[in-house]
Amino acid sequence: MKIKEHVPNMLTLLNLTLGMLAIISVLKGEYSDAAMLILLAAFTDRLDGNFARKFDVVSEVGKQLDSICDFASFGVAPAVLIWSFTLEDFGTSGMMVAIIFTISGAYRLAKYNVVEFDGAYIGLPITISGGIVALVTLYGLNYSLNTFVAVVITLLLSYAMNSKKLRIKKI
Description:
Layout: H1 7-27, H2 31-54, H3 60-85, H4 91-114, E1 120-122, H5 126-142, H6 147-161, E2 167-169
Helix pairs in contact: 1-2, 1-3, 2-3, 2-5, 3-4, 3-5, 4-6, 5-6
């Protein structure tokens, strides 16, 4: 096997590594670093599929690995970030909002692993949802972020990930 055949999965695993580093950054209270790591993971996620198609090494294992890594980087890491940054102020309700975001992301990824892709996403991709949470956190670090607004944004993103009314053409 040639090295180029491993590039897509190496990028996918880099995505996972960045997601885990984001979670560790949250645990250390380094919210800005965590948000930037999530955004960097989104960039690597964009590259892995492109390289898989370019090198003609698309595989079922790669597809499954991508979903697992996306779940960590864009389902778990952003939920932990927004919960620790602001939703924690809402107690159990804030925890439930973070859990709903994670569950919505997991369901979306599972659904897309068994459905044929027709060139357009139904619902907001988890990568975009996680990226928005990271951007909202960065905004809140530089300005003021009302906890209620964070709850509303997180719940809207949770809904949007699985909304049949939202259709986004893949670029």
